[in-house]
Amino acid sequence: MHKTKPIQIIEVIDKMTQGMSEPILCKCENNEEYIVKGLGAGRSSQISEWVCANLAQSLGLPVADFALVEVSEVLYDELPSRLRSIGSGIAFGSKKVQGPSWFEGVGTGHVSEELQSKILIFDLWIKNMDRTSGNPNLLYQAESESLVIIDHNLAFDKDFNSSDFLATHVFADCFADIANDLVARAEMEVWLQKALATLDEVCNNLPREWEWSNVECDLPVNYDYGFMRQVLERCEQKGKLWEGV
Fold it and tell me: Which tens digit of pLDDT belongs to each residue from 99-123?
């Protein structure tokens, strides 16, 4: 389980050029830079990021290091209007990866088939359609030949379509081997169940203020935890995860 004590942001640097959820580059008290999804990203986005990052970490997937970060009211009051979308209070921070390049699908040969398969099945499990060949949400570090997975704010997609998922996912070519191997499927289910066992603790450690859509805490988020749990519990029901694919 990841630490839940927020790291204080000491400088809000600038908006990132990539990302629809208004990520903002910040420097924190530990002298590390984080790409932060604040109030402008939406609470549902923050919740999904926190849950999925913890699940990915518990599965040993190469998720970017992450933390809860906090913008003090004093710092917020000093921000120019263009950066105020970050809001004050606790936000989701993903540590900036040093020296990465945006992963291109044509470079799959540099990533083991095992890792490709695990990322593919993880996205199938969390119903994340936002890792396509055109927008992989993957970073690649050539020097260490390592991959980093980022951006899970669109997970638990109620409009998830299995056919479209397999038609667009950057690692979709790996699915045929899993589809034809009942043993591999069973192993994947057991693998995912390890992460599912941590879900209650992950959700219990969400910031209380994330129950509200605004700083004033008078507009409830109404995040669909029931649907999220239903999605994730598919790995416990024999064959359920693979329906429609």
Answer: 666 676 545 667 889 999 999 999 9
DSSP 41: G
Burial 26-58 (b: 16+ CB within 10 A, else e): bebeeeebbbbbbbbbbbbbbbbbbbbbbbbbb
Q: How far apart are CA 115 and CA 30, in angstroms?
A: 31
- Alpha carbon separation from 134 to 105, 131, 170, 222 (Å, rounded): 8, 8, 8, 32
Look at residue 208 and give its three-state secondary structure.
helix
Q: What is the pLDDT of residues 140-165, one digit of tens each?
A: 876 667 889 999 999 999 999 999 99
Q: What token pair was written down for 84? A: 């105020």
| Cβ–Cβ < 8 Å for 121, 192 | yes
Residue with tokens 């606790």: 90
Binning the chain into helix, strand and coil, the percentages to the nearest 5 are: 45, 20, 40
Q: Cβ–Cβ contacts within 10 Å for residue 245, how many?
A: 12
- Token pair, residue 45, equals 């986005």
Cα–Cα distance measured from residue 16 to residue 20, given in angstroms and rounded to the nearest whole number = 10
DSSP for residue 172: G
* Side-by-side strand order, sheet with 101-102: 101-102, 138-141, 146-149
Compute the CA torsion angle 194, 239, 120, 94 (nearest 10 deg).
-40
> Can you tell me the distance from the alpha carbon of 214 to that of 236, in angstroms, rounded to the nearest whole number?
36
The two three-digit tokens of residue 212, written as one number: 């509200």
9 in Cβ contact with 36 (< 8 Å): yes
